[in-house]
Sequence to fold (361 residues):
Amino acid sequence: MSTWIVTGGAGFIGSNFARRALAKTDARIVVVDKLTYAGNLQSLEDLADDPRFTFVHADITDRDAMDQLFTKEQPQVVVNFAAESHVDRSIEGPAEFVHTNVVGTLQLLEAARAHTAGLSSSEFDAFRFLQISTDEVYGSLGPEGLFREDTPFAPNSPYSASKAGADHLVRAYHETYGLPTLLTHCSNNYGPYQFPEKLIPLMILNALEAKPLPIYGDGLQIRDWLYVEDHCSALMRVLEAAAPGSHYNIGGRAEHTNLEIVDRLCAALEAAHPASENPALKSQGIDRYDALKTFVEDRPGHDRRYAIDDRRLREELDWSPSLDLETGMAKTVAWFLENREWCKAVQTGSYRRDRLGLLES
Fold:
């Protein structure tokens, strides 16, 4: 039985990936997470009784802890989701993003390099280190064009700059040391277990509570959207079939403005939980979810458009997403409606869906 280490596995995408890996492989899944505000054991509760699942509370920036982890678990696969990931938070506190995303990735790479030095030739050839990154490292697009794997990095936020730095390290460790690395860049994810600081869960929960739906600037920023389970299926395919040193973009081919996403969410909420049956709305005399839309000051350095060219992944590895945006949105709304206790539990710390990332005037 092989062992996969999944760092950041108590977070949004990591927990969904751990769940899928247990369902689709025979591997042991060792989730490693620091349990910051966005990493929650509640997101892994349904896995706790699986004998192939192990949770380790540790910080990837702690080299001693990572060395001990690799020595004990002897992994064949490492998938690094661990990262500070919210752009607004990076504007307020960039140092933590550099520490976790760059230094943490470095420590993981060093632990992996030390681990693989003791492997046999066949074991080394089978080892994989998969770095999960973001399309934000490429910067911002104009009205036309797509991000390709050879698009130069041009990050515009401290978050995306820290992810770009980590990506460069991953590539360098393959080129310099021969470490069998893989690198993926994905478009915006949405779906179950997403922490409510991100656009879609924030809008769902605010709408249910009749709170304003804050839309940055004019709301016409464009993103490409991908349901999280489709992202995870792409990552599984990359691990299964990609050659060491490979780099793939993962997209949903679903470009929409933030304003369109909010409108679609309001429609999906109306279908699943009509405004006329929502006590919070009725108490304020509001009869439509979209009446809550509120335009607010834009984010500093807000990228205007992201769009992924994922032809390499589709053509070389024969992958494509299974859900369109309408279906994925309906599933997401249904999940949040059915899991209100999870939503409450993950917000018991300092986060109260307040606006972050505004510069002092």
Observations:
- The mean pLDDT is 94.
- The CA atoms of residues 61 and 103 lie 6 Å apart.
- Residues 94-116 form the longest helix (23 residues).
